Batch of 3 targets.
Target 1
Amino acid sequence: MNYRDTHESLRALYALAAVQGGYFTAKQAAASGYDYPHLAYHLQARNFERVSHGLYRLPTIPSAEHDDLIRLSLWSRDRADEPQAVVSHASALLLHQLSEVLPQRIHLTVPPSFRKRPPQGCTLHKAQLPVKDSEAREGFSVTTPLRTLLDVASEPGITEEQLSRAVEDALRRGLVRESELRKAVARTASAARLERLAVLTG
């Protein structure tokens, strides 16, 4: 790898890592031009940091606000190096600033076929999420406000008061339209609690 190749590879890797909180995977490094010998060299020179198996970080990039969620998203990647986890349930409520729920654990939704054991402090929910039910943030994805309300409606850890506040906040701020909420509730058998609240706020 000559000087020009090194410069171009670093620029490509930096651009990718910058939107992932400074993190990158071994496959992403290889795609940017860093094969294993070059990756090992930069690790030894402390230009790169090893975070976990197949996951690295550029120390010159400041940590992102949601560093833990970015790491979990990259932890969940499949063999094609694609993240599988989406931040959901009470953790998504917190991200959307709906109600004042402060979850003690990080909640993620993963596909039914997902087999990795969750890290400490993380709860996995298995479901096949349609593309329309999630939205991208910097370095990770989160369920949409509507999907989040549907998910937490069946969670015993969310009180009626917290759910009511979340519904009111979502409607007041325009994150969810009432017509959308009513249609979604009608299609969701487990959202009886939410249906009662939707009627109350109507």
Target 2
Amino acid sequence: MAHTATSPVVRGIIVALSLALFLGLFVTGAHAQDTGPQIYVNMLNTDPTPVRAGASADIYLGFENLGSGTQPIEVQLVNSYPFSPAGAAGAQNITLGPYQTNNNYVNVKLTTLVDKSAVDGQYALEVQYRPSGGNWVTQNFSVSVTNQAFAQIAYIGQSQLDLGVQTPINFTITNVGSAPLQNLVFSWTDKQGYILPVLGDNTRFIKYLGVGQSATIPFTVVADVNAAPGLDELELSLSYESASNGAENILNTTAGVFVGGTTDFDVSYSESSAGQTSLSVANIGNSPAYAVKVSIPPQPGFRVVGSTSSIIGNLNKGDYTLVSFQFAALNGNESGGAPQGAGGTAANRSGFAHGNRSSFNFSGTGFEGNNLTVDVEYTDAAGVRRTVEKSIRVSSSQSSSFGGAGTGAYAGRQTTASWWTNPYVIAIIVIVLGGGYWYYRRRKAKKA
């Protein structure tokens, strides 16, 4: 029997076909063992990165099916601090085909809200998914959260600056965000140039400011004496960096401060004439005074005859004017009774109270050594009504001028009744009447 030789080429073909058949049977068997979809989920990225506290963020997930069969999938975000689903945007339905993997994955976008109280750090984001009719599967992903770096300038301290006076003024900076701040630089300028810092410049540096912390920055300033009174605008600037990512922010704002306001007065004795005592009132401060009124309040040792106050109008800085009052002397222990001279008695005072002024002779005034209190009331540049109390010491040289009006006035107002009560006048009247009666009787006797 003859044997047919098999060529090497034929043998190679037979081996290749046998191997292909074997591999095909192996794969078919493997597929026959698949039980269904095999889901694999991967986080692709977040927008923004990192996500910001107090804002929304988009979460991108990649879904793959490593198994056989087409399968609908439900996907949703779980409400877990600091993340919460943004309504319908926090869930989605997708469909995965068999062996949909690698670059053929399904990109799922979900939107979450990030709690504003979250501080910088890594947080677990929970995602749930399930095939149709299956159980929920939870998977966690680490998400980086940063908070908004935000600072607030609270202007405090003096809201009013007196002209030409060194005044402390404070600014408070508060970290109202939820991320620490670093390298803070604060400065201020006056647009008009009326307010300038002294004992230092207008810039301060703060190295670090934690969440919720505040820093008070002190300055000492002076307002120019030539500045027009009114509201002045300060420009405030604050630059800072986020301690988490180094992002720089600049805050520019304004604050108002009132320039000018209170002032002071000098009150002194001027002169007395025509029954009036004049006082000199001068505005010795740096601010104007409006609707100035000068009053003599009730006080021991002095009594004002007539009006106790006088309105003198406006006084600019450096201006002065005179105001006059009529005084009557009092006993040092009295505060509103009748005037009394050095030799006055209780009966005399009683007579004055009942309108009988003939019994007074102001030989002594009673003013010497007393302090005269004077109230100066005015409206400042800010519209606030203020009162300044001044005291004038009455010297011996001035004492005779106070009350002089009362002396002259009362001395010239003697009534007719006072002539009849004078013994010299009575004697003269008796003599005249007696002589006349004697002359009348003698003449009548001669005629008889």
Target 3
Amino acid sequence: MVHEMRRSDRQLDLTATKQLLINGEYGILSTVGEDNIPYGVPLSYAYDEDRIYFHCAKDVGHKYENIRHNAKVCFTVIGKTQVLPEQFSTSYESAVVFGTVKPATDKRKGLLLLVEKYSPAFKEKGHSYIEQDIDTVGVYEINIEHMTGKGRK
């Protein structure tokens, strides 16, 4: 079920939302565990049109257990913000993605996108790092089903 944005006057268009996902420094992955307790964790990520890639420990941990229990996730990226004290408000931009997460079909692609985003000046070293550790790291992809962006300038 997709909810309508209450403040539709602040809705970002699809191009601006995608740009925010491309430029975002980190995102918050929200999952729900077997105990029905929500869990949100910040992580580095790479956006590639209809997918978001991230890496973590392989086959272990809270995030992994929750994903195994329920593949439905929410992923939030917050861009530029500025508190406007005299207006009792905030200037902001954010993107919210809903989708399903699974182990990446192409781990190497996900890791290369992360290197290109976070370490573009060290691609060669990143490639060798990937080859060394590709079998020991978990790489996941979120298949985007719905996304919205919102902002107040």
